[in-house]
Structure formats: structure tokens, C-alpha cells
Amino acid sequence: MSLPNIRVSVDAVVFGYDSGEGLSVLLIKRKVAPYKGEWALPGGLVREDESLEAAVQRELEEETGIAVNYLEQLYTFGDLGRDPRNRVVTVAYYGLVRQSEFDVYAATDAADAKWFHTDDTPELAFDHQQILHAATTRLRGKLSYEPVGFELLDKKFRFSDLHQLYQTIYGRDIDRRNFKKKFLQLDILQELPEKVSEGRGRPGALFKFDQKKYFALKKKGMLFQI
Amino acid sequence: MSLPNIRVSVDAVVFGYDSGEGLSVLLIKRKVAPYKGEWALPGGLVREDESLEAAVQRELEEETGIAVNYLEQLYTFGDLGRDPRNRVVTVAYYGLVRQSEFDVYAATDAADAKWFHTDDTPELAFDHQQILHAATTRLRGKLSYEPVGFELLDKKFRFSDLHQLYQTIYGRDIDRRNFKKKFLQLDILQELPEKVSEGRGRPGALFKFDQKKYFALKKKGMLFQI
DNA sequence: GCAAAAGTGTTCCTTTTACACCCATGC
DNA sequence: GCATGGGTGTAAAAGGAACACTTTTGC
Fold it and tell me: Do the Cβ atoms of A51 and B80 come closer than 8 Å?
């Protein structure tokens, strides 16, 4: 029996959050066959001398020009026939970033690269639809036991921005007062003396995250039911 | 640049539960280098024409002689140097079975195979210690949102057996009365008219799972905090 | 009658939810 | 003065934790 010829790839589901636009996902237009010209998740083959994590970072850089620090492993997809040419097992990663910090462009390995609102994604190549779906589900679950925000909001933000962020990711309304009560109990926010108006209505206080407490909490994993 | 030469393997962390003995894990003694003669998780290279799931099943069969139906993907380990010979990326699976139903023996591909109590495992080859640790953590977490029991207890069982099962997996004491109240609320048990004594003490009623309700609940994922 | 396990209920406390009114600003 | 968003508190309900006594059996 000959040695199996299986390739290993990585794919990245990078979600971008923007206060104005909500939740998006980063996609590339494929430059080569198969599925040439179609949209897909950024990703590609792992090299023999790089870790899986390094491979995702590299592919993201090569295809979209961005560098994302924190990606988490999502799931490994290895069904036969998921790539029409060869047997390819792909390890999918996902992450959530502040969209405004990432100016994506089609780097060398992609014909195009851009953010798509999660409500409005095109058909995807391979089984990437399935991967995206798994990532969305996982993202929501994850928020139940980890704070999110520091990486997604500006340094100073209004409480309503944070509120909006959670509503966006959960995809449903959350009572403003209860949310505030709960979030403040985590004791990871600092209220600033400044106030800011967004043009109409009463100006709101600005907040910032207490980095130390924030990461301490994140590390040990809080239980946070919204 | 030449094509990367990376192999894909699978490994299985099979936990066995036994009312008398508690929680064990299935290990094999390696028949070939590297780590020849050392204990390891069952597993091996994936073939080109089989799915990852099929590969785990096959390796389990070849090394330990057992067939496990329900394994879930745990995590993919792909660090450089985790196998001293080649670059090997391994997809780890885990599952929980009724130990008494699985008579393991060293099948063709292992020098030995047996259950080890989770409190008393030997040193393991490769990074299998790390994999085992990840599986243990995941198993506990999993019980919070899925019922367990049907697959692990006899058809008819005393409530104390179920209680004991949960205590074993969680590794701590759980109040008997509160546990009973909560579990009965799930409405997946049927109380039988039979009573059975285990030699001393008041005989207890026997219960069985209502299969339909059990799997319905399991499928949709309950939220079950012990 | 004593040791061992099974059966059962209540109280307290914490957490969650629902909900309404006033305040500061721009226009 | 009115529309808009920001700020705050309370009451009711649900859920979780702690806890003790009685019953049935074997010996």
C-alpha cells in the first residue's frame, strides 16, 4: 500500500465588527482553479516547516494583506471530495477583529478581497459555506464565556456602542438596563469624566476597558449569560 | 518550491465508564518505532480514500478490536516536531462509552491495549498527554449542555447509579436531592415499578431513559448546570 | 436495633427578567 | 417644546444551594 497523498490546508473565518455597519466576514475572490473567480474564505496549503497557526497568518497576509493576531481553531473538515482535485483536509480558524483597523486589498494570491456583511454573503467555493456557518455558531457560543469588546471598540466608547456590539453579534435585542447592570458587575470598565453627544439626545459618558482586569477575566474565562 | 510532505493522522480518546470502577481511558502499547513499547492513544494515518471519522473507527478496530459509534472531534494538533520522523498533523476525537461493553484486546496493530483508570495513566508517547488533557477538560464542559447516561448505564438503573456517574465525571460531590430534582425536571426518565436492593439499605426504584425524549433533548442541546 | 441506602420538602438566597420614569441635549 | 438617546431603580419570578428527617431493608 502506498503512502496516502493528503494535503493539509488552513482556512480563516475573520469576522470584522464596525459600530456603523455591524458584522462582516472577510472573503477573497479566487485567482486560480478550481472555483477560479468565485468567493471563498482566505486560506491555503500548510507548508512542511510552519505551524498551522503560522500558515493561517501567512495565507491571510498573502491573500488579503492583513495580519490578525488572535485566531482560534474552529474545526477540521476532511470529507472526501471537498476539493475536486486532491484529498485536502483543512483546519479552519476563526477570529473577530475591529474592521476599521483592517484595510484589506487583494494581495498577491487573490483576485480580490473584501468584507461582506454577514447578512449578505455570496455563494462560497468548496465547503466554505459550511465552515462559515460553523464559525458563526461558535462565535455566538463563545461570547457566553468570554468578554468581547476591547478588541472591537475604540479606546473610548459610549455604553450604547458596547450594547450595540452585543446585540449585533447575538442577533437579537438585549435589555439596555439589564445589560448595563451585568456588564458593570464584571468590573472591567472605567467610566471617564468626558461626555459625548452623537448629535442628538443626551450626551453619554465615555468608558474604557481596564486592560489588566479585562485580560485577567478573559484568561480565566468568565461565565456570562446574556 | 516542492509540495509539502505532511501526513494526516487521527487519534482517539475513548473514555470508558463503569459503575464500579469509574472513569477510564483506552490506551495501546505501541508495536513499532517511534516510541515502540510505550503507551499511546489509539490512532494512525488517514488513508486517501476514507473520511477522518472512518479512519478513527478503523484504527480503533485495528489496534484495540473495538467499534465505537459516537466520537466527536476534539481538536487538531499540528505543531512541528510532535512526531520525530515526519511532519504529522493529527485530528483528535473523543468519546464516552460503557466500558463493560468493550472487551479490548491488542489487535493486529498494537502490542497491547487496555483501559487505564483516569487517575492512574502512564506516560504517553508523542504529545498524547496534552491531547488526553484537552479531552478530559472538554468532556466535563460538554456535560453542561448535553445529557449523558443512556449510553453509559444499563437499560434499567437505580437513581444512585446516575448520580454516581455524574459525580465521577465531574470529579466532585453533587447534592443527591438537588440532582434528582433537576434531572427529573428534564423529563427524560421513566420510573419502573420494580425495586432492587444492592444488598443493604432500602431498595431503590429502577429507572430507564425515555429514548425519544432523551435524544430529542440531546439533539437540541439542553442547558444543564450542575 | 443498628447500619446503610432511598425517598421526600422547605427555606433562603441569588440571579434573571420585566418594566417606567426622568434627564440632557439639538433643533 | 419635542424628539432623541442616556441614566437609573424596583418588584416579581425563577432557579440554585443548603439542609434533616423518615422509610425500608439486611444482618
Answer: yes
Second CATH level (architecture) for the domain B157-220: Orthogonal Bundle (1.10)
User: Residue A192's closest CA among A157, A150, A162, A144?
Assistant: A157
- What number of other Cβ atoms are within 10 A of residue B12's Cβ? 28
| DSSP assigned state of A185 | H
Range list for CATH 3.90.79.10 in chain A:
6-142
Q: Are B210 and B188 in contact (CB under 8 A)?
A: yes
Contact indicator for B46, A89 with CB cutoff of 8 Å: yes
For B88-105, the pLDDT digits (tens) are 999 999 999 999 889 888
Distances (CA, A) of A51 to A178, B74, B208: 43, 18, 48
| Ranges for all domains in chain B classified under CATH 1.10.10.10 | 157-220
- Write down the mean pLDDT value for chain B: 91
Structurally, at CATH architecture level, domain A6-142 sits in Alpha-Beta Complex (3.90)
pLDDT at residue B148 is higher than 60: yes
Residue B180 CA to nucleotide C10 C1', Å?
16
The percentage of residues in chain B with a pLDDT greater than 90, rounded to a whole number, is 67
Assess whether pLDDT exceeds 90 at residue A163.
Answer: yes
**Cross-chain residue pair B7–A5, CB shorter than 8 Å:** no
Per the CB < 8 Å rule, is A73 touching B76? yes
CB contact under 8 A, A7 and B6: yes
Residue A51 backbone zone (phi > 0: left; psi -120 to 50: alpha; other: beta): beta
Measured between alpha carbons, how far is B122 from B89 in angstroms, rounded to an integer?
23
DSSP string over A157-182: EEHHHHHHHHHHHHTS---HHHHHHH
Which residues are CB-neighbours of A8 under 8 A, at least 6 positions away? A45, A46, A88, A89, A90, A91, B4, B6, B8, B78, B89
> Using a CB-CB distance cutoff of 8 angstroms, which residues of chain A are in contact with residue B78?
8, 46, 51-52, 91
Query: Which residues does chain B have within 8 Å of residue A6's beta carbon, measured at their own beta carbons?
Result: 6-8, 46, 48
Average pLDDT of A134-145?
85
Mean pLDDT, rounded, for A144-165: 89
Q: For residues B169 and A149, give the distance between their C-alpha atoms in angstroms, rounded to a whole number.
A: 34
Please list every residue in chain B whose beta carbon sits closer than 8 Å to the beta carbon of residue A50.
80
